[in-house]
Amino acid sequence: MSETPSERDAAAPPAVAIRPAELSAYIAARMCHDFISPASAIISGLDLLEDPSAQDMQAEAMGLINASARKLADLLSFTRVAFGASASAETFDARELEKLARGVFSHMRAELDWAVEPAAVNKPAARALLNLAQLGGAALPTGGTARVRAVQEGASLALAVEATGPRARLRPEVLAGLQGAALGEGLHGHWAQAYYVHLFVTDAGGRVFADVTEEQVTFAATIPA
C-alpha cells in the first residue's frame, strides 16, 4: 500500500541547513543546464547557415533556430517567476502563470491540464504552482498529463499537481529536496529545485508533500493565502 501525502510528510527526515551560497550554485547550475541545450542548438543552426557546403539545409537550419529560440525564451520567462524575484510583484494573475507553464510544457512530452480556481495568487503560491507543475512534467518521461489544481480553503490555498501516465516516477532526490533533506545520490539540479520549493513554502508558513502510486505522482502544498 502506498503512503499518503501526509504520511510521506510525517516520515520526512529532519530538515538540514544548506549554506545559501551552495544552494545558489546548485540552482544556477540547474538553470544553465536548462538553457544550454536550446542555446547550443541556435549556434548549431547558425553554423549551418554559414556553411557553404550546407546550402541545401537552409530551411532545416532556420527551423532549428526558430524552435530553439522559442524554447529558450519560454524557459527564461518561466524561470524569472519560478526561481527569481520577478520585480516587486506580490500577486500573480493565474492566467499569466498558466501561459508560463504552457510555454514550458510545449517542449515536454507531458500535457498540461490547468485547473486553478483563484484569479490571482500570492508570490509563494505562484512559485509553488510553476515549480510543482514542472516537476510534474518531469515525472512523466514518456508522456501523460500533469493536472495542476488550486483552490482556496479558508485562509489557505491548497495546491496539487497530479502527474499521471505510463512510467510515472518520482526521483529520490526530488523527494529528499521536498522534505528538506540533504542530497544523497542523484542529480543536484532536480534536488535543488525541490529543496528550493521546500524552503519558500515553509518560509511562507505552508507545507509541501509528495506521493507515488502506480502510474501517478502527486505533489501537494498548502500555503497561507
Protein described:
This protein is an alpha+beta fold. It has one domain (5-224): Histidine kinase-like ATPase, C-terminal domain (Heat Shock Protein 90, 2-Layer Sandwich). It is built from seven helices and seven strands, in the order H-H-H-E-H-E-E-H-E-E-H-H-E-E. It has helices at residues 5-10, 20-50, 58-82, 94-105, 123-138, 172-178, 188-203, and strands spanning 91-93, 111-116, 120-122, 145-153, 156-164, 207-213, 216-224. A five-stranded mixed sheet has the order 2-4-5-7-6. Strands 1-3 form a two-stranded antiparallel ribbon. A hairpin with a 2-residue loop joins strand 4 and strand 5 (156-164). The chain starts with a helix and ends with a strand.
Quickly give the structural class.
Answer: alpha+beta
How would the global form be characterised?
globular
Order of helical and strand elements: HHHEHEEHEEHHEE
CATH architecture: 2-Layer Sandwich
- Which segments are poorly predicted (pLDDT under 50) over 5 or more consecutive residues? 1-7
Tally of individual helices: 7
Please give the CATH class.
Answer: Alpha Beta
Strand order of the largest sheet: 2-4-5-7-6
N/C terminus separation: 33 Å
Question: Describe the biggest sheet?
Answer: 5 strands, mixed
Number of strands: 7
CATH superfamily: Histidine kinase-like ATPase, C-terminal domain
CATH fold call: Heat Shock Protein 90
Tally of domains: 1
Q: What is the percent of helical residues?
A: 40-55%
State which percent range the strand residues make up.
Answer: 15-25%
- Rg, nearest Å: 19 Å
* Mean pLDDT score: 91
